[in-house]
Amino acid sequence: MPNKKCVLIGLIIIMIVTAGCVADDHAAAAPVQYAFEFEDINGQVHKLSDYQGMPVLIRIWNSNCDVSVLKNVGLEWLAEQEQDYALLTVVMPEVGGEKTRDEFAAWYADMGFISLVVLFDDEAQLCSDFYVPNLPAQLIFDSEGNHQLSVPGLMSEKNIMAVMSRFTKSN
To answer: What order of strands is seen across the sheet that includes strand 117-120?
Structure first.
């Protein structure tokens, strides 16, 4: 059993290390227009600016997470519906145990999804730029490409529709 002095020193170290995480300058910053350029699973290049004029929701996920894969069934349904926003998904080949591009493409073809746009973020740019520590997560951008919201975990289709309605022109 550790002695009290070691536990106290450990707690102090944790408090010092995590103190910088609490005082995040980015948390209070105004929205900043963002740009990316990623290839999709079919080799087509997508830029955030391609969706100028409409809000964008990006789900970052990993094929090794069974819950993410199952929730993408609902996301597939949502992508097939008419909506006033873009719905994109992003995976990071060879990051965090994810498959290579080729392995992912073969696996994904077997899954039967046809409506989801899957982009490859080879350098984990989105996770780095938006401080996404865990997957899955969603990033929401307004119609000008300004990052508005980061949502950790999985959002249900109902929650996606509710949140995105705040950013569409009809509301």
So the answer is: 45-47, 37-40, 117-120, 86-91, 56-60, 137-141, 147-152
